[in-house]
């Protein structure tokens, strides 16, 4: 029996995925979580074989959750199921040790087969995304990404500086770097382009 923890912030999607996976004779959903921090607590409490997670969630994103799993050396395999068909997300997911990356519009049996494949030690990656992921490299580093994400939420440079424990000047430098690397006119355009490419 493959024990699964399901992390998804939309209750209806979470319920549907849980019900679908529960129909498979060799899959068991042992827990669910509505946000990244809850998923992290459940991971440690339940010790599942596979974590199935969305990318966009409150608290920790699915990618940040995968990075934390990797950093702490947990034995769980991570599979991302998302609506984001963006190569940048896939690249970052693979860097974080994710073994599976599927889109939510894939058939249910494809997800079940992917979970079995990942549990056996293989990978399950959407092939079209895999091609796209290596066509364009992500120019941002982690700190630039963090600053740009907060700027995109409407935070001022002072607020970002305070939240990240940086000086105002350092934040402005990071934003300038992002704008320069992405070849855009301002931080709003930088945020929009980075999100579109899957780099945020």
From TrEMBL:
Residues 133-198 form the HTH luxR-type domain. Keywords: DNA-binding, Phosphoprotein. The modification 4-aspartylphosphate is found at residue 54. The keyword Transmembrane does not apply. InterPro entries: CheY-like_superfamily, Sig_transdc_resp-reg_C-effctor, Sig_transdc_resp-reg_receiver, Tscrpt_reg_LuxR_C, WalR-like. Gene3D superfamilies: 3.40.50.2300. PROSITE patterns: HTH_LUXR_2, RESPONSE_REGULATORY. Pfam families: GerE, Response_reg. The keyword Hydrolase does not apply. One of its GO terms (biological process) is regulation of DNA-templated transcription. GO terms for molecular function: DNA binding. Residues 3-119 form the Response regulatory domain. This is Two-component response regulator transcriptional regulator. It comes from Stenotrophomonas acidaminiphila.
